[in-house]
Design brief:
Length: about 180
């Protein structure tokens, strides 16, 4: 089966979705810093972007992404449905498990956010993004412990660090 491929449409849609996603990441960071809460509507918007991107870029099982993966944001969003489902679970499920075993370690918003972002980006991108975000949070924790002399029980919002990891992953993939 051969699909007519319109690279201008896919590039435009990929760029629009990429900019929207980066704006949502900025909103998540801001609200998590200010209120220590990630709004549910942000997670819903990211999940909607995942559904839209799957519709725009089809699924790798039916469509060849060689051209699509060379287009700006499109290379980030052009992942198969299987990769999206694995992405939704591979970070959020371990975070949920840790939260159950050690209450207060992650907030519910962090878990929902990583589930939605994983559904959009796929398992490869979300794993690297989560690793980068958690590493940057670890550097911040060292700063809090060594420079600020806060105790081990100091709390801080994780959302901005996860957003940073995702943004860095996206931008390094594009450029």
């Amino acid at each position: 089966m051969h699909f007519k491929y319109d690279t201008k449409r896919e590039r435009f849609m990929g760029d629009v979705m990429g900019v929207l996603f980066l704006v949502i990441l900025a909103v998540i960071s801001y609200t998590d810093i200010r209120r220590r809460q990630i709004p549910n509507w942000c997670c819903v918007c990211i999940a909607a972007l995942a559904v839209i991107s799957d519709a725009v870029f089809f699924s790798a099982e039916i469509f060849d992404f060689e051209i699509c993966q060379k287009l700006a944001f499109s290379e980030i969003f052009a992942v198969s449905l299987t990769e999206r489902m694995l992405g939704a679970l591979c970070v959020s499920v371990p975070m949920l498990g840790i939260t159950v075993l050690a209450p207060g370690s992650f907030g519910g918003g962090d878990v929902k956010f990583m589930c939605a972002a994983g559904a959009l980006l796929g398992w490869r991108h979300i794993l690297w993004s989560a690793a980068a975000g958690i590493f940057s949070a670890g550097v911040y924790v060292l700063y809090l412990l060594i420079i600020k002399n806060t105790g081990r029980k100091a709390e801080f919002p994780l959302g901005p660090f996860l957003c940073l990891g995702i943004a860095v992953n996206i931008l390094t993939e594009i450029y």
